[in-house]
Design goal:
By secondary structure, the chain is mostly helical. It is 83% helix and 0% strand.
Amino acid sequence: MRISGPVAVSTTKWFSVCLLYLQLQNQYFSLFHVIFTSYHVLLAMYLCTLLRHYGTLSCLFLHYISSYT
C-alpha cells in the first residue's frame, strides 16, 4: 500500500520536524554531557591524588568507571 498525496507530504513534514527536534535536543544533551563529564574528570583527578600509590592504571580505571555511571 503506497501513501500518496497530502498524507505523504504531511507525514514527511512531521518526520522532518521530529528529526529537527531530536537534533536540537541532542545538542542540549551534549552540552549537559560535557558539563557532567568535566565534573567526573575533576572527581577522577581528585580520586587520583588520593589514590596515587595505586598508579596510573587505577586512575584510568576510575575515570572509565565514572564516565559510565
